[in-house]
Amino acid sequence: MTKPNPASPQHSGHTPTLPELWTMTEVAHTMRRTRSGVDKLRARDPKFPKPLKDGDDRRSRIYFVRQEIEAYLAARLDARVVA
Q1: DSSP at 25
Q2: How far is residue 26 CA from its own chain's centroid?
Q3: What's the whole-model pTM score?
Q4: Distance CA 61, CA 82 (A)
Q5: Cα distance between residue 79 and residue 26, in whole Å
Q6: Max CA separation in the chain (angstroms)
Q7: How many domains does the chain have?
Q8: What is the full DSSP assignment across 27-81?
Q9: What is the per-residue pLDDT across 3-28, written as a single tens digit (0 to 9) for each?
Q10: Where is there biased composition of kind Basic and acidic residues (predicted)?
Q11: Residue 39 lies in a domain
Q12: Cα 50 from chain centroid (whole Å)
């Protein structure tokens, strides 16, 4: 029988909170845009959240942090109300 490792997160009483990652398809669906529409928005808006790339290859999948996308959309809505 294996003894529990008291230093491991599952036994220390603290569970690390990892961000929820969305694919480009999920971001496009949430924003009601096409994938190319999201790419165009990323290219023209420097405030758009930066993706995490899964590898070095040009075709590697990219992921976005859900909370960053939601914060970006909330900021745009707030700016619209102020303007």
Answers
A1: H
A2: 10
A3: 0.75
A4: 36
A5: 24
A6: 64
A7: 1
A8: HHHHHT--HHHHHHHHHH-TTSPPPEESSSSTT--EEEEHHHHHHHHHHHHHHHH
A9: 555 554 555 567 789 999 999 999 99
A10: 36-56
A11: yes
A12: 8
